[in-house]
Design goal:
Number of domains: 1
Structural class: mainly alpha
CATH class: Mainly Alpha
Number of helices: 11
Largest sheet: 2 strands, antiparallel
Distance between the termini: 44 Å
C-alpha cells in the first residue's frame, strides 16, 4: 500500500507539469478558437533550448528556464504571424492544417539537425525521503515551479492591462476592437504566451526524463487529454486535469505495463468527451 501511495504522489507531481503544458494549449483555444497542432513541437523546442543552452553555458538547468520562456514566446509570436493569423475566423480545419504543417516543418528541421537519438539533461537535486521511498528532487522542483507559473499566469491575466486585454478579446473580439484594443497584437501575444507555457513545460520535462526530437507527439496527446478533462478554454481546469491524469498514471503503473497507460488515458479521453463534453473541471474557471 505504501508503494502505491508513493506512485500516486509521484504521478501527481509529474501530472502538474502535464497541466502546465495543457494550459498553453487551452489558452490559445480560449482566446482565438484555434487548436494548435504544433504544440508538441513547441514542447520539444523547450527541451532542446534547455539542453543546448545548458551545454553551451554550463549553467544550472533551472537558471535557464527564463530563457525557455522568452524563446517560447518569441517562437509563438513568429508562428502566429506565419501560420495562424490568416486562419483566424476561417473554418477550424484551416487552422488545424496550418498548425499541423508547422509542426511537421519544425519536427523535420529538428530531425535533420539532431536525428532521433536520446538526449538527457544532467540535473542533480536531493530527493525527499519519506518512509522507505525517495521522491526525486527534479519532480518536486518541477511541481513547485508549475505552481509558481500558474500563480503568475493568474495574476497576469487578472491584474495587468495586457492580461485584461487578452480576456477582453477572448470574450468579444469585435467589442474589444470598438474600444480601441489592438486585437491583432493581443492575439499574437496570447499565442506567444501559450507557446511559452509549452516550452517551459518541455524544459521541466527534460529535467525529469530523457527525450528525443519525436517526444513531443506523446506529450501533445497528453495535453489534449488534459484539455478535455479541464474543459476547452479553461486554464485552471487544465492544471487540475493534469494532476488528475498524473494521479491516474500513478494508480495504473504499479499494476500493469507502462505501455497500457496510454490506452487507459485515451479510453478516459473518449468517456469524458461523450459524458462531459464541457470538461470535468469547467466550473473552476469560465471565460468571461
Amino acid at each position: 500500500m505504501s508503494g502505491l501511495l508513493a506512485s500516486i504522489v509521484d504521478g501527481i507531481l509529474v501530472g502538474s507539469v502535464y497541466g502546465m503544458a495543457a494550459m498553453g494549449l487551452t489558452l490559445i483555444w480560449g482566446v482565438m478558437d484555434v487548436i494548435n497542432l504544433s504544440h508538441g513541437a513547441l514542447i520539444v523546442g523547450g527541451m532542446f533550448a534547455l539542453y543546448l543552452i545548458a551545454a553551451a553555458l554550463g549553467l544550472s538547468a533551472y537558471a535557464i528556464l527564463p530563457s525557455a520562456v522568452v524563446i517560447g514566446f518569441g517562437a509563438g509570436v513568429v508562428l502566429y504571424w506565419l501560420a495562424v493569423h490568416r486562419m483566424i475566423g476561417r473554418a477550424p480545419l484551416m487552422s488545424l492544417l496550418s498548425t499541423f504543417a508547422a509542426n511537421l516543418v519544425l519536427i523535420g528541421i529538428g530531425t535533420a539537425l539532431w536525428g532521433t537519438v536520446l538526449f538527457n539533461v544532467p540535473v542533480s537535486l536531493p530527493g525527499l525521503r519519506l518512509g522507505g521511498y525517495t521522491f526525486p528532487g527534479t519532480h518536486l522542483m518541477a511541481a513547485a515551479l508549475t505552481g509558481f507559473v500558474a500563480v503568475v499566469l493568474y495574476l497576469f491575466m487578472q491584474h495587468t492591462r495586457p492580461g485584461k486585454a487578452i480576456r477582453a478579446v477572448a470574450g468579444n473580439r469585435v467589442a474589444a476592437e470598438l474600444v480601441g484594443i489592438p486585437t491583432r497584437r493581443v492575439l499574437a501575444s496570447a499565442f506567444g504566451l501559450g507557446a511559452a507555457l509549452a516550452c517551459v513545460s518541455g524544459a521541466l520535462i527534460a529535467t525529469m526524463f530523457p527525450f528525443t526530437v519525436l517526444s513531443g507527439d506523446a506529450y501533445q496527446l497528453k495535453s489534449f487529454v488534459v484539455t478535455v478533462l479541464g474543459g476547452l478554454g479553461n486554464p485552471a481546469g487544465a492544471l487540475l486535469g493534469g494532476v488528475a491524469l498524473g494521479l491516474l498514471e500513478g494508480l495504473v503503473t504499479p499494476f500493469m505495463p507502462v505501455s497500457w497507460t496510454s490506452v487507459i488515458e485515451f479510453v478516459l479521453f473518449i468517456i469524458v468527451l461523450v459524458a462531459f463534453p464541457r470538461g470535468l473541471f469547467n466550473f473552476v474557471f469560465r471565460r468571461s
